[in-house]
Design a protein that fits this description.
This protein is an alpha/beta fold and about 60 residues long. Helix content is about 30%, strand content about 20%. The protein has three helices and three strands; from the N terminus they run H-E-H-E-E-H. The chain has a three-stranded parallel beta sheet with strand order 1-2-3. It starts with a helix and ends in a 5-residue tail after the last helix. About 15% of the residues are buried.
């Protein structure tokens, strides 16, 4: 909601999320979503999943779909 109120183009934003409901909300808003997972978690709907924050810079540099 904050990004939308600022007039941001939500398709250009990337959300890093660690919950299924957060991934669903970001997806519904039209944002790119990276799912941060810990032991035993799985998520549907994220553009990519990762387990180590060190992976984040490489994921952010991927072209937007």
């Amino acid at each position: 909601m904050a990004a939308e109120r600022c007039g941001a183009d939500l398709r250009r934003w990337v959300v890093v999320e660690d919950s299924a409901s957060g991934i669903a909300a970001a997806r519904a808003a039209g944002m790119r979503v990276l799912g941060f997972v810990s032991a035993g978690q799985t998520f549907d709907g994220a553009d990519a999943l990762f387990t180590d924050l060190a992976e984040l810079p490489d994921l952010l540099s991927l072209p937007m779909s």
